[in-house]
Amino acid sequence: MAVHQTLLSGTVRSPSRRANLLRNQRRAGYSMLLPMGIVIAAVTLFPILYSVWMSFNDVHLTTNGFALSFTGLANYRVLATSGVFWHSVWFTVYYAVVTVAVELMLGMLIALAINGVRRLKDVSLVIMLIPWSLITVISAQMWAYIYNGVYGVFNAILQALHLIGGPVTWLGTPGLAIVAMMVADIWKTTPFVVIVLLAGLQMIPDEYHEAAYIDGANRWHAFWRVTFPMLRGSIALAGLFRILQAFGVFDLPFVLTNGGPGTATESLAILGYETLFQNLHFGTGTAVAVSTVVMVLAVCLVFLSAFRSMVETEGA
Amino acid sequence: MVQSRSRTAVGYMVLILFLLLILLPFVWMLLTSFKSPLEISQYPPTFIPERFTSGNYHDAFSRYGFAGYIRNSVIVSVASTFCVLALASMAGFAVARLPIRSKGALMVALLVISMFPPIAIVTPLYMLLRTVGWLNSYQALIIPYTAFNLPFAVWILRNYFLQVPGALLEAATVDGATVFQSFWRIFLPLTRPGLFTAAVFTFVAAWTEFFMALVFNSSDSMRTIPVGIALFSGQYNVPYGTIFAGSVVSLVPIVVLVILFRKWIVSGLTSGAVKG
Q: Which CATH architecture has domain B57-275?
């Protein structure tokens, strides 16, 4: 009888203890998420929403704070009719599309070539990682000195090769400044793309390619039918990451050209910075920022969906 | 066989050419940092310095504030890294191993948050920091750097916590350990590689960040290395010698970090690709 009772109470108590445990663990889980939640809410979520609100207002600094007055779409109307804004939209898109496309293609070619090298030495890996960890401002100063129109080594090399007659002011000529900046960007970030793609390549089993070759595929087909579909995760990752960075391009033009000559290399981030913190037009400035965010998110969605359909048709 | 050997040869050639192209600007910067100001602005430039001088290094650290920039960068980066590790390891553990609701939505939300560019948040933060008098302070950078690097760190650490068997938590609970004790004593030590990866990424991100550092901490004594180097200018000419001397020194810690943690960096860079 007594044995029976304990057995009974045991089976009755067990689920409730289980539920207690679950509740305890859940409560612990939420309290362990809370610090992160507070920081992210305070420093990202709230400011993002507040930025949107500010962009519908006229914002004035006061001695110990700031004041808002609602103006509706006025800030956006200013942007819509501003040639400077549309130019910086065009420049940012152009810059992002060209650099990301070149970096992905160049990175793919390099990764495919050095994938033939059986064992990649650690030295090579370290060298490829250094540009990734390099302060962009330092690389910008480096390139500014290389491109310098008076004593730059780039002119000296081109002149020694008789490719140019005299020194060229690379950063002082609108078209050239854009290309020069793209080269500096491509130099710094292609190694990152190579590392990501190389890691993807090394996860594809050799048998897949062997099977393709046995079936009579040439190298071109093997790439599009085997390698490319298997790499889609790596390509999407590298591409998405680079698009996000390229759309926010700020450090390079800030140091290399300060957005110039004129407004030739004025990216959205540079325009936003100048509007906000040099001209102190906080309402219009946040409108620039919000427009940038909308564009970045839209471009990411387009990239991902275009990429998905491309993989599906090529990989079919 | 012949084909694969020629492919290897091409591979080596491309690799060597690629590595040289990466290194050349660094070599140029290093050589320039040992030239005299006169030689730096000479055309055509000399390749090897005619006379090696450490004058630029002396200038950067005794006449100008590079020592202060480096100190500021170290403080901000180390503090941000610790904050991220503390918050992200708890959050990653909770998502991976505790029965909380809507984990999937939380992880997606983190991913979306990490896609917002800094310019989206910089104005309200600037106003807030200005109002409470925190412009030109360490916390002005440590807090946003922590927030911005949390999403990636949570993702990384969650994946590592998932690899630790959940049965360990039950075993520890049976032995009377609280959830936090199990996390601290059992799970955290087992996810050390994940902590390394998250730490390196946060440190590098904080070390290289320029935009917020420029907006929030622009007074000379509070500048981090990127701001110091970007705003450094001479009376007539850009003092490249001093800039490069400071740059070379500030490269040292990061290169050491890359050499030590290269494996974790690559695993972090490619962690997103595995899942597709």
A: Orthogonal Bundle (1.10)
A12 and A110 co-located in one domain: no
- Note the pLDDT tens digit of each residue in B96-129: 999 999 998 999 889 888 888 899 999 999 999 9
Element (H, E) at B114: none
Within a domain: residue A283? yes
Domain membership flag for residue A289: yes
Find the residue in B nearest to A280 (Cα): B123
Contact between chains at B150 and A244 (C-beta distance less than 8 A): no
CB-based contact B93 A32, cutoff 8 Å: yes
- CA B64 → CA A195, B59, B69, B156, B246, distances in Å? 37, 6, 10, 40, 10
Q: How far is B262 from chain A (nearest CA, A)?
A: 7
Q: Decide if A69 is inside a domain.
A: no
State the Cα–Cα distance between residues A127 and B23, nearest whole angstrom: 8
With respect to residue A202, please indicate whether it lies within any of the assigned structural domains: yes
ipTM summary value:
0.92
Q: Do B99 and A22 touch (CB under 8 A)?
A: yes
Please report the residues numbered 107 through 126 in chain B whose beta carbons come closer than 8 angstroms to any beta carbon of chain A: 110, 113, 115-126
> Which stretches of chain A are DSSP H helices?
2-40, 46-54, 74-80, 83-114, 122-133, 136-147, 153-160, 174-201, 206-214, 219-222, 228-230, 232-247, 251-256, 268-273, 282-315
Give the tens place of pLDDT for each residue, B136-170: 999 999 999 999 999 999 999 999 999 999 899 98
Judge contact between B193 and B211, C-beta under 8 A. Answer: no
| Chain A residues closer than 8 Å to B122 by CB | 47, 276, 289
Residue A188, min C-alpha distance to chain B (Å):
8
This prediction has a pTM of 0.91
